[in-house]
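Why do we care about 3D structure at all? Because function follows from shape, and shape follows, mostly, from sequence. That is the central idea of this module. The next example makes it concrete: a single protein chain, its amino acid sequence, and then its structure expressed as tokens.
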Amino acid sequence: MKKGLIAVCMLVSLAYGENVYERNCVPCHQNLPTSLQQMFKNYLLVYSSERFVKAGIKHYLKHPSRSISQMSKLFLDTYGIKSPTTLSEKELDEAISIYWEKFKVFDKLK
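And the structure:
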């Protein structure tokens, strides 16, 4: 009985140990041919700064449409447009901040 309880506790801690980005973004994107890093580069090329990249991503996730997507026409024809996010405002901001920190290049350039 005690071993079963410990196993359940470990599984729960693993599930909740992931952050909002890993729980809500990574699973859907892992089977796409374009990585989250490449999508980040697309946003960075268009929006340039942290503030504008985050605002662009947030707007797209809340109001997805072809006209504002940074993906190619072929990608959109193949995979379509995502559904609007169901994340709360706080979760969305947290996920976008984690995404930014993971792939930003500014502090990595020497």
